[in-house]
Amino acid sequence: MFKIGTLKIASRFILAPLASISDLPFRLLNRRFGCDFAFVEMINARCLGYKSAKTRQLLTTTAEDRPLGVQLLGCEETFVERAMDIITRYRFDILDFNAACPERKVVRRGEGAALMKDPAKLKKLLSIVVKHSPVPVTVKLRAGWDARTLTARECALAAEDAGVQAVCVHGRTQNQHYAGTVNYESIAQVKKSLHIPVIGSGDVFSASLARKMFDQTGCDAVLVARGALGNPWIFQELKSFFATEQLPARPGSAEIAEMMLRHLDLCIEYHGERVGVVVFRKFFIWYTWGLASTRHLREAGTRSRTREDMVRVIEEFKLLKIERQGMRSHNERLSILPA
Ligand SMILES: Cc1cc2nc3c(=O)[nH]c(=O)nc-3n(C[C@H](O)[C@H](O)[C@H](O)COP(=O)(O)O)c2cc1C
Question: Among 28, 78, 81, 211, which lies 20 to 30 A Cα-Cα from 242?
């Protein structure tokens, strides 16, 4: 068990916010395998002000999709304050603030990881969020801006001062984006300096890498991000390993196919058939990534336009005798995304 403010979370493995990925179908599927807490992808404070249909759809949830975190991205006090007024009309349990997104179009505006260069500004923004939030507030940081500007500890202390109830640190700098090694020491330093829980993020692709994150940083919980792409079984694996030191058997093609069908149907229910099939195509690639003799199916999956097309490809996959090579390798996971 793990607590963020007053919220009790049943386990220490959290599904990360993932832009263009963490929709309701993806979250529900991971919850079936034991994910006890999930995040919606980041929502821009400015877009919330425009009340777009897309933003409303991102915030759609159900009773099984709880507890749930939402994440706000922004850097202008007025927009953040206005966004708080709108976002608090939706149902969720944690409000996270993004100071971690490395994308050029984001940091150019002074948002996301750009805030790692300005702890005072970050503190001001977080104070506004804390003041207006009815639920516990958390913040997502990076190790720093670049190798010479490792500000995670300073930013985390500023966040704790502003009243946030937990800090998540992705142990890479903005410069690294998603590549290169994770700086576990930067997370360990934050953990040593704070009184509130710390969540570690970076390369949690397997139970042994989750153990490495806990052992090297002393963090209280971990975020599962790329490790969950096409692999909701990771939550079952983490829970089993940390409870019994045993790893469950990896799924065979029939079980993977069953899950793909369920995922496809959830995507269609949520997005409609045309968009749902397009959204599912990338998941099909991740479900089959690294499995021998599946390249022709990935090509066919990428061309699928209707449920019927996609089901045909999944049925063909189901007949394959896949040789389970255990957990997909670290390098394969790293290459999975972003392209
Ligand atoms: C495609 C993609 C989208 C992401 N979107 C978000 C996001 O919306 N908000 C956020 O805080 N982090 C986001 N992240 C970062 C992840 O939450 C996580 O911190 C990072 O991928 C490191 O974990 P990993 O090495 O286990 O993948 C994203 C990462 C990826 C690969």
Answer: 28
